Amino acid sequence: MSHRFLPSISSLRALEALDRLGSASAVADEMSLTQGAVSRQLQGLEQHLGVELIQRDRKRLSIAPTAQDYVTEVRQALNQIAQASLRLQVAPVGGTLNLAILPTFGMRWLMPRLPEFARLYPEITINMATRLEAFNFAQEPFDAAIHFGVGDWPDTDNLLLRTERVLPVCAPSLIQAKTPQSPKDLLRLPLLHIQTRPNAWQDWLEQNGVSLSAPLPGTMYDQFSTITQAALHGLGVALIPDYLAEQDLATGRLVALHPQAIETKGAYYLVWPRTKSRDQSLMEFRHWLASKAQPEDDLPR
Fold this sequence. Notes:
This is Glycine cleavage system transcriptional activator. Keywords: DNA-binding, Transcription, Transcription regulation. One of its GO terms (molecular function) is DNA-binding transcription factor activity. InterPro entries: LysR-type_TF_proteobact-type, LysR_HTH_N, LysR_subst-bd, WH-like_DNA-bd_sf, WH_DNA-bd_sf. The chain is α/β, with parallel strands linked by helices. The protein has 3 domains: 9-90, Arc Repressor Mutant, subunit A (Orthogonal Bundle), CATH 1.10.10; 96-154 and 266-291, D-Maltodextrin-Binding Protein, domain 2; 163-265, D-Maltodextrin-Binding Protein, domain 2 (3-Layer(aba) Sandwich). It has 10 helices and 11 strands. Strands 3, 4, 5, 6, 7, 8, 9, 10 and 11 form a 9-stranded mixed β-sheet that branches. A hairpin with a 2-residue loop joins strand 1 and strand 2. The longest helix is centred in the first third of the chain and has 23 residues, at 68-90. The radius of gyration is 26 Å and the shape is elongated. The chain starts with 8 loop residues before the first helix and ends in an 11-residue tail after the last helix.
C-alpha cells in the first residue's frame, strides 16, 4: 500500500483522541505531549493526506464534519491494532482461538463442557466474546463462531451442534383463571417474542394447525435470559428451548402449555471461515466439539 495512504500512528492517535476528548489540552495530557506538539501532529496529518480535518476557532480545535467518517474508521483500525498486539503478547505456545458465542447458549451449553477441553488441551487458549447479531469474519477478528441458523453462511464451513426444540411456558399465576386447552387458546394470553427468532410464534402455531390472519402482538426481548425472567414473573407466555426451561419446569416455577417440545427450523452451529479451516487450534476444538454435538448428549449437572 502506498505510503501516501498510511499516516503515522501518532498523528492518527491525536486525531482520534481529539474527537473523543474534545480539546487539544486533553489530548496532550493523554499522549504526554505539549499542546504545540499535538497541533503539529494534526497539521502534519492534514498535509500528508491533503485534506482539511480540523476546524480551528481561535484556540479551539475540533473535527471537521467532513472528517467524521474518517475518524470513526481510524478508531476502529487503532482498536484492531491494539487487540492484535494484545493477542500476540499473551498468545500461549499452543495457540489461541477467538470465538464468538451466543450469550445464553454459550453459558448453558458450552461453558459446562469447556473444563474438559481445558484439561485435554491446556496449551490452547480460547478467547470468547458474545454476539447476538450475525458474525462478520471479514470485519471482526474471530476464528469461529457459535450461532443459530440454517447453516447457509457464505464462504464458511460448519458443524451442527444441537437442534432446537421449543416449548411454550409461563408462570402458573398467569393461567390461574383458565388453563389453555389448545394451541389456539394461547392467542388469548400475552405472548413474549425474542428478537433473534422473530417468526418463532408464527411457525410454532402453524405447526400446530393454527392459521394466522394478522401479525402477533406482544413484547420483544433481546435474549433468552431476559425473556425467561419475564415469563417467570408472569408477564406472558415465552417460547423457549426445552434445555433452558427444564430446571424451572422441574421446580414448578414455570408450566408447559403444550405436551411436547417441537423442533424449530434452525439449529446451533459452530461456524468458521474456509480460510481458517487448517488452523491447528480450530481443528483441535472442532474435533473435540464434534464429540459433544450428539443429540442425546445430556447437559452437565
